[in-house]
Amino acid sequence: MNGEQRIAITEYLDVDLASEQWTCRRCDAALGDAADDYKRHLLIHDRDPREVHPARFATEHSYAPDPAWCRIVEFYCPSCGTQVETEYLPPGHPLTRDIEIDLASLRRIAAERAGERAEEAR
Amino acid sequence: MSAATTDYFEQLLSGRPVLYGPDREIMEEHRIPPRTAREEEALAAIADPADVTVAHARLEAVLESAMEVLQQICVAPGAKWGDLTVGIYSRAGDLALASTRGVNMFSAAVSPVPKFIGKHWADEPTVGVRPGDVFFHNDSTYGGTHNPDHTVLIPLFWEDEHVAWIGTVMHEGDNGALDPGGFAPSATTRFGEGLRIAPMKIGENHVLRRDVLNMFQNQVRDPLAWLVDTRAKHSAVRDVEQRLHDLMREHSPELLIATLRHLLESTEAEVAKRVAAWPDGRFRSVCFGDTTLHEERLFKLAVEIEKRGSRLTVRTHGSAPQIDRAINAQAHYVRSIVGNEFMAFLFADLPRNAGFVSALEFDFEPGSMLAADDDQPTSLSMLSSFAMNTALHVALTKALFANPGQTVPIAPWYAMIPTLRMAGLNQHGQLLARSAVEMNAAGGGARHDRDGEHACAPFFATLADWGEMEEREAEFPVVGLWRRIPEDNHGFGRHRGGASVEWAYMLYGSRRFVFAETSTGGRFPVTGGLFGGYGGPCTPLTRVRPRNGFEDVRAWLAAGAEGLSYDAAKVVERRPIDADYTVSRPDVIPAPVVEGEFWIQRMGGGGGYGDPLEREPEEVAVDLRRGLISPEVASSVYKLVWNGDRCTPDLDATAAARDAERRARLERGLPYDAFVAAWRRDAPPAEVPYLGSWEWEAPAEWASESESEEAA
Q1: Which residues in chain B are contacts of A46 at CB distance < 8 A?
Q2: Which of A93, A113, B38, B222 is within CB 3.0–4.6 Å of A89 for a Cys-Cys bond?
Q3: CA atoms of B440 and B456, how far apart (whole Å)
Q4: Do B529 and A41 touch (CB under 8 A)?
């Protein structure tokens, strides 16, 4: 948590409770409404998996995923270009809304932590 | 009406079943029941709570010791390296404490077995439960995990009182199925999966009945191993029984009863308490398997975690439907996979017992691949449930990230089973059917603060080992050609996943032998990444089958094996001997092999954590020097620029290359709506045979509780 108003939800994303915005933890850019799917506020790229996982065999099966079966969907911070998340999906498969967080419970956590800090200070 | 017919109808009218099948009431209830009057009495008799703490420590020591001895004296290779457990159950049948090492899933799956015995056999005049009785079970529709896991269970008595149960579960080498080696990839119904034993008595007065053992031995391909292992299991539970008698003699049966109850209740309460500290919300992930063991087919495993207060519900809606293949999993088995995740990765400090799953809620779709009906084949349920575990792990990690004090976020472990299954006459003339154990060498997921561990352990038995090649050579007619950590065999990221091994085994010393493989990962990788990290690669199987007999291979090896490289891709490229070279998906129904034929397989690596561009250049260079990554990956994924053979990183050039890549991402990345417009398909690609949901619009049940309440 940064200060008392930002809570880390992933390695690269905070929720800023004051502004109720998703925020990049690398560049501090406000990305969008925290009630939304954060992926709606990122840049997205359909990556051929062979660019990441070298095939090594010139055969139907290899170490590289079959691009007709599997794609790597990459999500980038639109401000600093940090790769925030990846998903391995069949081509055209629905993107996963992986985090749907209750802001009221985040406020409760923030209040509890503030209380703990105050207790420690005493 | 004949006498037999009259008896039949009288039996029906008496309310006693013709067949004591799986008891739905037992199988569907995963919560620990209320205290019995005897448990209340025992808890009230404890004057000092410290006595329970001391007794708990003593029970841990007893179980660890029993498991250690059992590992030493058993035969089944999987069990020898950790695929087993020893546990103590309450009188009601809830597993109250399992050995720390071994398979955690057993801790969450085996309770229905003593419950069945207690409910149906205890008062049955022809069976009963008495001191010295020994029970056996392996049919997973009655509890447990899958049929190759065999249970030996005894009631623990003190004087005339039945106070607890003691059991051990072990993965056996063969189960008498259509296919050798415990699993049955060929099976399309449960009737092809070999032994299906409902809980039954196999011994009395501490003696195993020889005629009964003989009946079992006659059903499996590895009768010696089955006999030794069953006796070993009985020996282990007897050892625990004697030590618990010591405890009760020194203290009281009340102390044991109270300790078992306390372990169950305190674990359940602690799990609920820790979960309550997480933020409320829904967290989801999906994973895919790519083979049914008969045909290549993509199947989806979806997980949703809904957390409200101290209540945590695991849903698997949207996952593939059940199919007439051995890859289905039953609901109680999937619950045990969830239990393992909590025991092994989230709250590993708590005692392993049924209290974990008792604290959780489950919402599975009956008839799906993850809640299959009792008549479906399930001996290779790992192909669906282990993939589901990867999705579960990711969803849970995202659910608890906001509460970092409880555990360290870890990228997905490699969770699949590419290992050699072997059967036939070995070099000693013995008939055997067993698995090798390289599947225990899974690569660990990268952690929030450091890289994953190489060739670490399976996610379901995180303290298991995988033995030496020489041990395989002593037991099986094989020569281990190599084991090594190959390049690019893990997930890349700021912290990289742990790599796993590539192994090669050649048949030597037998002409009547089969090899098999049973794994996903031929086209779609098993492991994903976390928070910007990448998953692992695919893991195809390479087979080299000599065309001119073994003497040709022997001569080649004796002359120095020119052209042999400890690398499957280079072997296929160089073709050092006159042979058929095949690269295929890593699932092969048991196939006869010829002497000199060798199979090469990689276990998978763990997922990467974080954006690879954040990995320290020197760490990338070390990976490059050690052969963990290829120059291609160092350059294209990590954007490392280096000089010379020692791979000295050029820090300024690397920083510039990484800045350029971040700018390139901003150029090529599309906003959500534009991406979806280009990416979206309303049905799976026609060329990909597919099982599972494909819904772009969120299902109605995804509406949050508050939204549902408002609508109401």
Answers
A1: 675, 678-679
A2: A93
A3: 8
A4: no
Q: Is the pLDDT score of B15 beyond 70?
A: no
Q: What is the dihedral of CA B307, B308, B310, B313, to 10 degrees?
A: -40
The whole-angstrom distance between residue B368's C-alpha and the CA centroid of its chain comes to 19
> Model confidence over B27-38: pLDDT tens digits?
999 999 999 999
Query: Are A64 and B632 an interchain contact pair (Cβ–Cβ within 8 Å)?
Result: no
Q: Distance between CA B138 and CA B111 in Å, rounded?
A: 13
Indicate if the pLDDT at residue B17 is higher than 90.
Answer: no
CB contact under 8 A, B688 and A11: no
- Comparing alpha-carbon positions, the chain A residue that sits nearest to B582 is A59
pLDDT at B336: 95
Q: Where are the alpha helices (DSSP H) in B401-484?
A: 469-475
Give the whole-angstrom CA distance, residue B390 versus residue B373. Answer: 23
For the stretch B593-625, pLDDT in tens is 999 999 999 999 999 999 999 999 999 999 999
Alpha carbons B591 and A68: distance in angstroms, whole number: 29
| Contact criterion met (CB below 8 Å) for B520 and B383 | yes
Q: Are A70 and A49 in contact (CB under 8 A)?
A: yes
CA distance A117 to chain B (A): 14
Alpha helices in chain A (DSSP H): 103-121
Long-range contacts of B246-250 (CB under 8 A, 24+ apart): B247/B55, B247/B58, B247/B59, B248/B158, B248/B163
Contact indicator for B96, B89 with CB cutoff of 8 Å:
yes
Name the residue in chain A with its Cα closest to that of B661: A81
Domain ranges (residues) in chain B: 3-273, 414-610, 614-664
Angle made by CA atoms A7, A10, A16, in degrees to the nearest 5: 30
Distance (Å) from the C-alpha of residue B637 to the closest C-alpha of chain A? Answer: 6
How high is the pLDDT of residue B405?
Answer: 79
DSSP secondary structure letter of residue B206: T
User: Which chain B residues are Cβ-neighbours of A57 within 8 angstroms?
Assistant: 540, 569, 572, 583
| Contact yes or no for A81/B668 (Cβ under 8 A) | no
Q: Where are the domains of chain A?
A: 6-95
User: How large is the ipTM?
Assistant: 0.97
